[in-house]
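[worker-b] picked up task from shared queue
[worker-b] task type: protein-ligand structure
[worker-b] ligand name resolved to zinc ion; SMILES cross-checked against name lookup, match
[worker-b] sequence length check passed
[worker-b] input payload:
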Amino acid sequence: MTDRKQPAGQCPVCGSKDLRTLYDDTLGNDLPPFDYAFSPEHMRTYEVVRCNTCSHAFCILPADDIWKNYQSVVDAEYLSREEAHLLTAEKVVETMQRYIPSGILLDVGCATGDFLAVAKSRYAVEGLELSQWSSDIAKKRGFTIHTCTLSEIPPEKKYDIVTLFGVIEHFESPAQEIARISRLVRPGGYVFIWTGDIDSWLARLLGRKWWYIQGQHIQFFSRTSLDRVFSDVGFVPVACERYPFTTSLGSLSKSAFRYRILRPVARLFLDNRIARNRVITLRLPGEMLAVYRRAGHS
Ligand SMILES: [Zn+2]
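[worker-b] inference finished, payload out:
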C-alpha cells in the first residue's frame, strides 16, 4: 500500500542484510491470485527469506508496486463468507471493548465493510480500502470509505483506534505503513492487528503448507518482529491474544481440503447440511490478535 520501494536484499523491519532462504520461489515473474477463492495457484509464492537479525520473514518481490493490483480486485467468494465475518467481528469487538470502549475507528483494508457493520454499534467507524469494487459495496452500506493508500489520508485526520485484520502480511513496506498509522493515531490510542505468527508451533509444524504461506502474502511476522515494528514508531505492546476466527464448518472444510490428511473429515462435513452450517469459533495457535497503545496521554 505504498509507492515507496522496499530496498532490495534488506529486511523491511530492521534493515539487516543478514538473510537466509526459507522457501524457494515458485511464482517467478507471475502475479499471485488476489482473491480468496482458494486453488493450488494460491500456494505459489515468491522466494521467502528470513532475517537472521530480527526473525522477520518476507518475500523477495520481482517487481515494485504489486499493491496496485488490489485496486481492481473483485472477490465474490469474500461476499459468500459474510456471516462468518460478522460473527468473527462480534468476538473481536468484545475483545476491543476491554481496552477502549468508544472512539473514532479506522479499519485499514476494510473490504466490503463487514467489520464496520459490527463495530459501528460501539465506535464511530470509517474504512480504508484499495479495491474500487469492495469500496463501492461498503459505501452503499452507508460507510465513510477512503479509497486510497495510507499515505493519502489527510494528515489532520486523527483516530482513537486503527484496526488491521489480515492486512499487514500484504504490505510491501510494513515499517513505513505502520509509521503512517502512528501519525493517524492519537496519543493513548490503540491499534488492533490480526496476522499470523511464523514462530508458532503450528506454523513450524506445517512449514510451507502453513496457510499464511500463499502468493499474496509477502510479510510473515513473529511476535518479536511485530512488537519491533510498532515499538519503533512509539507504540507499547499491550497484549497478544488468539484471534477468534469464527466460521461455518462448511467453509472451514473447504479450506481443510488443501491438507490431504484432513480430507475425509472435511468431506463428511461438506456432505451433511446441518454440520455444514454449524458455526464454531477457533482460537488457533499462531493467529495473533495483537494490541498496541500509542505512548502518551490523549
Ligand atoms: Zn530484520
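[worker-b] attaching auto-annotations
[worker-b] The chain has a mean pLDDT of 89.
[worker-b] releasing lock
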